[in-house]
Amino acid sequence: MQIRSIILYSKSGEKRVLDFRLGELNTVTGTSETGKSALLDIVDYCLGRDEATLPVSPIFTTVAWYAIILQLADTRVLAARPAPGPTAKSVTNAMFEVGSDLGVPELADLRINTDSAQLRQQIGRRIGIGDTRSKPAAGSLATPLSANLGHAVMLCLQNQDEVASKRILFHRQNENRIPESLKATIPYFLGAVPEDQAALQQQLLQAKRALRSAENHLKAAQEANQNVESQLQSLLGEARVHGLLPDDTFSSPDRDVLIEALQQASSFRPARHDGDEEQRRQEFVLNEQSAALRRQLRSLAEERQLLNDLESQAAGYSGAITRGMSRLSALSLVPDHFPGEHSCPLCGNELAEPDPTVGDMHTTLEDLRSQLDTVQAVQPRREQALREIEQTAMGLREQLRGIEGALSVIAEQRSEQPGLLGQAEAQAYTRGRISAYLGQISTTTGRGHLQRLQSDVDIAQQRVQGLEAQLDSEAIDDKLTHSLGYISGKMSSHAKFLRLEHGDGLVRLNLKKLTVVTDTPNGITELLRIGSGKNHVGYHLAAHLALHQYFTANSRPVPRFLMLDQPTQPYYPSDMAKARGRLEDIALDEDRVTVTGLFKLMHQVVTELAPKFQIIVSDHADLPHPWYQDSVRYNWRGGEKLIPTTWLDTNPAP
Asked: 595-626 burial, b if ≥16 CB within 10 A, otherwise e?
């Protein structure tokens, strides 16, 4: 994916179209305050960035829409965004269109048909960004991160505050949570992480859960099987204590004999006592009656509460009607033929909308009286219903007191026979425990059941091992090391070409710290410890060119362009030098060589990768070399700017 055009639309429909060559070095040179730096922000915005970073100035307030046309392998994509307002913090509206021969549309043809998230997803899918949701580290509260076009774009842009920085290497690296996103997604863009990592990680998570479940079931069955004899002996002794079995039966330690004895104990039935049985039946009936009476009382209480609520609402409604009638009572002093509804009673002017007539207000008064009569007519029936509810409740409470008295008598009689009842309850409890345990061991301690559980564990283990092999962290690390080794070789070569400080050693990309490191006689040195902005620019360029050489050579899903804003800024310190941008305006001969080398390196890399890679540079430099002049697409000097000043005449700023 490369940039074919950048388009600005004025509010009156005028267009400013900047065309760029595909697969080449494109230079936009010019003086300060001509809009060169805005090009990078426009591309960033059109590719889905929500935060509004575009300049706020009278000339930029004339812009209605920003758009770019992207060239993909077999089609073109239009990504357009409405211009954010002067006070806007973020914008999500967007337009997305695809076509093999897509041209520059008119302002009237632009329309919002998507949002920034969908825009990134659609473009990302077309350049090959797949489902790459990464699993956070164990114990982390972070949500899984899915690589998208926004992460890839951060590897393609370097604004003027970034390209000469010693603290940050990538676009937006100093913003909150961006470093974590870069660390999580760069391995994917380098090809070290499998394309289907998200699906594999989810399958592995489910397989591990299934394995734990199978292991737990097997362990529980094994423990139950080991303790069966001791538990059977314990239950057998308990059955003898409570009279479920004779003391001299079933003394064999054999499991089958013990189970047979306990089955006999669980089927034990105590002798029936007719008196006790009748007492329990009566107690059951009385408890049922007591529960029914309590339910009826609760229902009556709810009905009483409902009627009381209706009473309160009716009182409020009656008050509102009474106040309305009071306001209209003065109508009796006004004759029916009063003609004042068409004129103001104070100034006498004709009213645009006449006031209600006296007849209309009399009608309203009669309606209010009718409604009040209806409300008052319901009041006696409501009071009668409340009285009936209270009488019914009193009768139910009397019945409930009688039943509770009978239950108290039964309880006193039972307390006089604690031994007999206690023994029966103990026997029933023991029979229940025996039945439950026999049912458990019949399904969980058989030899066939244990074999099935062991087989489930074996299958689950094989599933986990297979998925872990596909997500082998060592294999991923090996791939990442190989990728970084290739990039390191390119970076070292570029550093030597640019004659950077410490550039004679091995130059590497440190993904853990997101910086450049180089070997020196005194050890490893980070970019932060390397002096001068000139070296910082050189190492930024070396790193990003090496990355894109790798992306292109390995067909990775990263846009095939690199945008750089003001890479030669450390070499043009004065306003006069920036305005002219000539080599002779640079004081030191070695700096002139370095500036020439920066652009020559870019030109060489683009030529090497042509037509698969594009560089767009916004800069003050205006070098005399033919190959450089051939790369100049726009030279904004002598009044030429990104946005024509005539737009202020036809699109006055608010």
From this structure: bbbbbbbbbbbbeebeebbbbbbbbbbbbeee
Report which residue type is found at 289: Q
User: What would the two tokens of residue 416 be?
Assistant: 């006089």
464 Cβ contact partners less than 8 Å away, ≥ 6 residues apart: 204, 207, 208, 211
- pLDDT tens-digit series, residues 361-386: 667 666 666 665 665 666 677 778 77
Cis peptide before 567 (omega within 30 of 0): no
> What confidence tens digit (pLDDT) does each residue in 605-621 have?
999 999 999 999 999 99
- DSSP states of 267-285 as a string? T--PPP-HHHHHHHHHHHH
DSSP character at residue 356: P
**Directed axis angle between helix 418-444 and helix 255-266, to 10°?**
140
- Residue 420's contacts (CB-CB under 8 Å, 6 or more residues apart) are 273, 276
* pLDDT band at residue 138 under the 50/70/90 scheme: very low
The pTM of this model reads 0.62
CB of 156 within 8 A of CB of 563? yes
Q: For the chain, give the percent of residues with pLDDT over 90.
A: 43
- CA neighbours within 13 Å on the CB side: how many for 106? 4
